[in-house]
Amino acid sequence: MSIDYKKEIKKILKTIAFGSKGIVGLDIGLSSVKIASIEKKGDEYHLLGFSKVSLPEGAIIEDEIQKPEEISEAIRQAGEEIGADGLNCCLGISGPNTVARKLQLAGGTDDEIEDQVLWEAEQYLPFDIEDSTVDYHFVGENEGGGVDVIVAAAKNDVIANFKELVEAAGGTVKIADLGILAVTNVFEFVMGDKLNNPEESYLLLDIGAQKTFFIIYKDGMIVFTKEVNIGGVMITEEIQRQMGVNYYEAEDLKLTGDDNGNLPEEILEIIDDVVETFFSEIKKAIDFYISSTSDESLAYCVVTGGSSLIPGLLEGLEALLGVDVSVLNPFDAIQYKEKDFTEEEINQIAYTGVQAIGLGMRQP
Ligand SMILES: Nc1ncnc2c1ncn2[C@@H]1O[C@H](COP(=O)(O)OP(=O)(O)OP(=O)(O)O)[C@@H](O)[C@H]1O
Ligand SMILES: [Mg+2]
């Protein structure tokens, strides 16, 4: 029996419309679970609350859930901390069994566009369309008179596995969205008019613990995305290996250094070595993009994620890319009440909270 894809798409859209009230953004990363509660007031977004609960070593390895009970417990705690009523969430999904891609379509009625999305998706998805969920966002009309869309797809079992974790924590997944799209939403909202020049392209990097989202944005839309397998845990593991300490001690050494808060030479050397790998992977991704699109208009780069705090990373990226690199500050555009957060919390959230914020901003 063949699956009625159209019905599938409608079903997803219905879930989105239904779940839009009172939802929080939930980001399950390798190092921690993060929840952001966002309120939309007119054109403004307000951060009402944010919570973050660390995960134990190896809770998720290469996008495979290894420690479901610990992850659910962290989700439960994070929900409790934020006081989320019922923990209805927009869940971020990522990994090799997900795809976000821009498509140029011929256009037409909604039904015709849906047909074109499914036809195209079937051609390029690296997994079977029959076992996956496909959704799309309109971007706008293109020069050829057709429409541009961003197609988001994920394998059903990936969504189901993460849903189970949330349900075991007493929560409900109202919407699932791709982490890459959530991060890009914040980027668009924060950068605003700075993204308007159609002759320029921009690189957005979310450098986390196990992976880096690599996103090229041009002329009002995502034109290329890739998940690159680099992240801060590679440094942690190297510290463990070279210094004979455990994961938690290594993480601590990386973040706080010695008793005086200085990073010892040994650690700095490890960081420099691993960061070289980061740069060569980012270079590969950018070279691939340039050779497949002939687009050489990169104008600047914006970074987020906890590992963008690695000493020397921004300077190294600037040298590698030959453009200015800056850190995405969600609070350039997103409001919050100063009495609700300490300065240190806001600083932490600014670096590691962007995906959860983008998920929390999600509207139907
Ligand atoms: N000051 C710092 N210096 C170096 N690394 C840091 C610093 N602060 C945080 N990190 C690193 O950032 C990583 C956590 O960042 P983030 O929360 O963005 O990742 P994640 O979302 O959990 O992971 P992923 O998205 O890869 O699943 C950890 O590897 C942590 O060691
Ligand atoms: Mg992350």
Explain what this protein looks like in three dimensions.
The protein is of the alpha/beta class and 364 residues long. It has one domain (5-235, 271-360): 2-Layer Sandwich (Nucleotidyltransferase, domain 5), CATH 3.30.420.40. It contains 11 helices and 16 strands. Strands 10-6-1-2-3-16 form a 6-stranded mixed β-sheet. It has a 5-stranded mixed β-sheet with strand order 13-12-11-14-15, with helices on both faces. It binds adenosine-5'-triphosphate and magnesium ion. Adenosine-5'-triphosphate binds at residues 29-32, 208-211, 231-233, 251, 254-255, 305-307, 309-310, 352.
List the helices and strands and how they pair.
Blueprint (H helix, E strand, L loop, with lengths): L4 H14 L5 E5 L3 E10 L2 E11 L5 E2 L2 E2 L2 H15 L5 E6 L4 E8 L4 H15 L7 E10 L5 E9 H13 L3 E7 H13 L9 E7 L4 E7 L2 E8 L4 H11 L3 H10 L8 H29 L4 E7 L8 H9 L2 E4 L7 E2 L6 H10 L1 H7 L4
Parallel strand pairs: 1-6, 3-16, 6-10, 11-14, 14-15
Antiparallel strand pairs: 1-2, 2-3, 4-5, 7-9, 8-9, 11-12, 12-13
Question: What's the number of extended β-strand segments?
Answer: 16
**Distance linking N and C termini:** 31 Å
Strand line-up in the sheet with most strands: 10-6-1-2-3-16
Q: Say what the CATH topology is.
A: Nucleotidyltransferase, domain 5
In short:
Helices cover 40% and strands 29% of the residues.
List descriptors.
about 375 residues; alpha/beta; Nucleotidyltransferase, domain 5; six-stranded mixed β-sheet; five-stranded mixed β-sheet; about 40% helix; binds adenosine-5'-triphosphate; binds magnesium ion
